[in-house]
Every structure is written in C-alpha cells, then in structure tokens.
Design a protein that fits this description.
about 25% strand; 8 strands; six-stranded antiparallel β-sheet; 4 helices; two-stranded antiparallel ribbon; Alpha-Beta Plaits; alpha+beta; about 160 residues
C-alpha cells in the first residue's frame, strides 16, 4: 500500500541548486515512487559546524517502499552525489542531505531511522517548507499541525525564500 512520505532536501556545498535538482530527480526514479509535490526553495543560515548557507526544501512522495528501504535508497543517492558521511551528529556542511521527515502516520524508532524526524519541531528550515506543502498535516507524536509548529518553534534562524 502506498504511503505518503515527506523528505527534507538540503545542500550547502558547491552548486546547491544543481545538487538539489539532481537528488529530487533520483528520488523520482526510485521504484514504485513518485514525487507528488515540491515546496519552494529556501535559504537558511548555517547551523552547527556548517559555515555556508543551506538551500532547503521538502518534497512529498508516494511510495510503495518500506521506510527502511527508502532510507537505504536515499543514502545511496547521497553517496552517489558525493556526500561523505560524518560520524559526528553535529550539523556539518554537506553536498546533499536527504531526511525522511514523515512516513504516513507511522512512528518508527530504530537505531538507524527515527520517524517522525525528531528535529522537526526545532527546525524552521524544515517547518516552513513542510507547512507550505501540508499546513494541516498533524505531527504523529505531537498532534500539532505543521503550520502551528512552524509558528510556535523556538528556532529563530533565518530562513528566506530562495530567488536564485
């Protein structure tokens, strides 16, 4: 049965727009998967140890893949596009970052995959494009809509519509 999943897409190295475009194109090519909606693109100020501004957005996909299989395929896309995984959990610069934010209404807690993504409520660069795509969608754990979370987050980092 197809699930709607929301994927966070971000890049802050090299040709950010091209990395973003290529990642979304690769996701569209996954088996039994279709990109059904795309947010606007946003620039967000660096966080953690990253130094360059990020280009971020969210896509909605319809997929027959299981969440763990989707994760493996997203990690392969990251690797194919040149991402080098850092053992540190701190935010660092990256060519591409693909995160499963939501996977239907599922709550998944494994060592490698946590859905909903635990940082959704703390990241304006995720909440703004996510609430653009699905403002009335409820967070499966918190019960708040994405638009409510976007307004109430304590994150005050700059997130601006990208005009490139």
């Amino acid at each position: 049965m197809a699930q709607t999943a929301y994927i966070g897409v971000g890049s802050n190295l090299g040709d950010r727009r091209d990395h973003y475009r290529r990642a979304v194109a690769e996701i569209q090519e996954l088996p039994d998967t279709k990109v059904v909606a795309r947010s606007s693109l946003y620039e967000s100020e660096p966080h953690g140890r990253a130094r360059n501004w990020f280009l971020n957005g969210v896509i909605a996909i319809s997929t027959e893949l299981e969440a763990k299989d989707l994760l493996k395929r997203l990690q392969k896309i990251e690797k194919d596009l040149g991402r080098k995984r850092n053992a540190s959990k701190n935010s660092v610069s990256r060519i591409i970052d693909l995160d499963i934010l939501l996977f239907g209404n599922q709550i998944i807690q494994t060592r490698n995959l946590k859905v909903p993504h635990p940082e959704i409520p703390n990241r304006r660069f995720v909440l703004i494009p996510l609430s653009e795509l699905a403002p009335a969608l409820s967070h499966p754990k918190l019960g708040e809509t994405m638009s409510t979370l976007a307004v109430s987050t304590e994150d005050r980092t700059k997130v601006m519509l990208f005009h490139g």
